[in-house]
C-alpha cells in the first residue's frame, strides 16, 4: 500500500452541560485526507481542497501535517516521506471540530499506511498536538471522539484519561452551521473564570444525568440533562437568533439543543432521523428569518471513528 | 396490623466529587422505628432510645414525627393516631444521614402500616420535610438513597429529579466515625460561594467518570473518579488526622476515600469485604494515633432501602 484515503468525523464538543469534558462524533460531515508514500523523507502538503485558501500550506503550520510529523517522530520513522492532500468537507472555525478531524484523519492514515505500528488509542496525543496549533491548547474533546468514535468523556488531562460512553442505537444529531463566524479564542475569552457553587452543583447534576441517560438508555433523562447553566448563557450572545433557533429545535421534538463546541454551529439530539430532519429545517428557518443562511447536517452518532475509504 | 418495626439505612452524601447531588445507602448502620396504631389521632413520640437524650421529644420538632405528620396530612388521614418509638443506632451529627434515616424509617413505616396508599417513590417529599427540620434545608442526598436504596443522583430540585444508579454487586463501603463533632451548619458555612471554572471542569469530569464507572462497572475508573477538588480541601480541615486516615485507606487498597456528608465521618469504597475491613482498621488506627477513638462499620451498598423487621 503506497497510498491511502481516510475519512474522520466532525465532532460536537461540550454537549450542553459538559464544557471541556464531553464530545461526540457524527457520521456527517467529516474531513478526508489522502496520503501517498514518497521516497523523499518528510511530510508535505500537496494540496488542500475546500478551504478557499484559508489553511496554511506549510507542513510546520498545518494541523494535519503537524499531527503526522509528531507521530513519525515518536515512532522513530523520520525516514518516511508522505505527500498530503486534504479534502476539507466542512466549514472552518464552525464549532464542528474541523481542525480535529483533519489531525485525526492525518495521524490515523499515516498509522494505517505504515502497517499500524500503534494501537488507535495511542494516537490521541499526536492528534492533540495538531489541535494545539489550531486552537492554542491541546484539547481532547474534539480529537477524542473523532478518533475513538461515539460519545467521549475527557475525565482528566494529567494524566490523560479519555472514556468512551455507550449511546443509544437510535440517537440522531442535527447540526446547523449559520454562515457567520465566531473566533474560538474570543469564545473562550468571554467566559468568566469563576462559577457560582450553585451553578456548579446544577451542572454536575446534569453531567451525571446525561451519562446515566446515555448508558441506561433513557431518552427522557437525556433530554432533562441537556441543560447548560454555565457556558451557554454567556456564549449564546455571540450567535444571533440563538434562542429562537433553540426554541425551534425543542418545539420540533429535539431532546435538547445547545452550542456545538465554541460555536457558531448548534447541535440538537433527537430520537429518530425524521425528527432530526424536521429539527434541522426549523432551526435553519429561524436563522433565515433574520437573513442568515446556514448548512444543516443530520446523521447518527458515529460509533467507528475514522475509516479507510 | 396495628404495629410495625422498620429499619432505614444510613447514607453517605456527596461521595467525593458529587457535592449535594450524590448519595448512597449502606446496610450498616441504620435506624429503627416502631409505630403502633392508637385510637387517639395525632403522632406522639413515646420514646427515643440511643440518643442520650439529645433529640427533641415534641412531635412538632422531631425529624421522624414531622415526616410522618406531613405524610398523614397529604394523604388526608389526620384521623390516624400513631405512637412512635425511635431506636437510634448510629451517632448523631456524624455525617452518616442520621436524621434522614429516622425520617425515612418513619414515613415508610406509616405508609406500610396504612396499607401502602402511596408508592415508595412518592414518599420522598415527606422525608425531605423531616430533613428540613434537622438541617435547615430540604436536601435529598441522604433521604433519597435511604428511601430508594442504592446509589442516587439528585439531578434537580425544581422539579425534584432523583435517579437511581446501578452499582457493582461487590462494592463494599467502610465508614469510620471519629468521636469528634462537626456542626453541619458550620461545615456549610466555610464553603466558598464561588468555584474556579478550572475546578468545576475537573469535578464534572470526575462526576461523569464515577457514574460511568459504577454503571459499566469499572473499578479502576471508580477509583480514578473518587476525587473532590472543591469541597474536601476546605472541609477536611475540620477533621483532625483527615489526610492520614485517607492515606491509610488508600494504602490498604481502598478505591477512594473522602468525607461522608459534611463529616466528621469518612467513607471508603472497596472491591471486597476483606479489603473494607482492613481499610477500616487502618483508618481507626490513624485516628487513634492522635488519641481519637472511633467506630467503624463495613457493609455492602444497601440496594433495598428501608425494610420491615
From TrEMBL, chains A, B:
Belongs to the GHMP kinase family. Homoserine kinase subfamily. ATP binds at residues 91-101. One of its GO terms (biological process) is threonine biosynthetic process. Its main location: cytoplasm. The gene is thrB. Catalyzes the ATP-dependent phosphorylation of L-homoserine to L-homoserine phosphate. This is Homoserine kinase. Residues 66-150 form the GHMP kinase N-terminal domain. Its EC number is 2.7.1.39. Residues 216-287 form the GHMP kinase C-terminal domain. One of its GO terms (cellular component) is cytoplasm. It is an enzyme of class 2 (transferase). Pathway: Amino-acid biosynthesis; L-threonine biosynthesis; L-threonine from L-aspartate: step 4/5. Keywords: Amino-acid biosynthesis, ATP-binding, Cytoplasm, Kinase, Nucleotide-binding, Threonine biosynthesis, Transferase. It is found in: Cytoplasm. One of its GO terms (molecular function) is homoserine kinase activity. It catalyses: L-homoserine + ATP = O-phospho-L-homoserine + ADP + H(+). It comes from Spirosoma foliorum.
Amino acid at each position: 500500500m503506497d497510498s491511502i484515503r481516510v475519512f474522520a468525523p466532525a465532532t460536537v464538543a461540550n454537549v450542553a452541560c459538559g464544557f471541556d469534558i464531553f464530545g461526540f462524533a457524527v457520521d456527517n460531515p467529516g474531513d478526508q485526507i489522502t496520503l501517498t508514500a514518497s521516497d523523499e523523507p518528510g511530510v508535505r502538503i500537496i494540496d488542500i481542497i475546500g478551504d478557499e485558501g484559508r489553511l496554511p500550506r506549510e507542513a510546520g503550520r498545518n494541523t494535519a501535517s503537524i499531527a503526522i510529523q509528531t507521530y513519525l517522530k515518536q515512532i522513530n520513522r523520520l525516514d518516511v516521506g508522505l505527500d498530503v492532500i486534504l479534502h476539507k468537507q466542512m466549514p472552518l472555525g464552525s464549532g464542528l471540530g474541523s481542525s480535529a478531524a483533519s489531525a485525526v484523519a492525518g495521524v490515523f492514515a499515516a498509522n494505517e499506511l505504515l502497517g499500524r505500528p500503534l494501537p488507535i488509542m495511542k494516537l490521541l496525543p499526536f492528534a492533540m498536538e495538531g489541535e494545539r496549533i489550531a486552537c492554542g491548547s491541546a484539547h481532547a474533546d474534539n480529537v477524542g471522539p473523532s478518533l475513538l468514535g461515539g460519545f467521549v468523556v475527557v475525565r482528566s488531562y494529567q494524566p490523560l484519561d479519555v472514556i468512551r460512553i455507550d449511546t443509544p442505537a437510535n440517537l440522531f444529531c442535527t447540526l446547523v452551521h449559520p454562515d457567520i463566524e465566531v473566533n474560538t479564542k474570543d469564545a473562550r475569552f468571554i467566559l468568566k473564570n469563576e462559577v457560582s457553587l450553585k451553578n456548579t452543583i446544577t451542572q454536575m447534576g446534569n453531567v451525571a444525568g446525561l451519562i446515566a441517560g446515555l448508558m441506561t438508555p433513557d431518552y427522557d433523562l437525556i433530554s432533562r440533562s441537556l441543560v447548560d447553566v454555565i457556558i451557554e448563557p454567556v456564549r449564546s450572545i455571540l450567535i444571533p437568533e440563538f434562542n429562537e433557533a433553540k426554541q425551534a429545535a425543542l418545539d420540533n421534538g429535539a431532546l435538547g439543543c445547545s452550542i456545538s463546541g465554541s460555536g457558531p454551529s448548534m447541535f440538537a439530539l433527537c430520537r429518530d432521523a425524521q425528527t432530526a430532519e424536521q429539527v434541522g429545517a426549523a432551526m435553519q428557518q429561524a436563522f433565515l428569518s433574520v437573513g442568515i443562511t446556514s448548512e444543516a447536517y443530520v446523521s447518527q452518532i458515529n460509533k467507528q471513528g475514522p475509516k479507510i475509504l
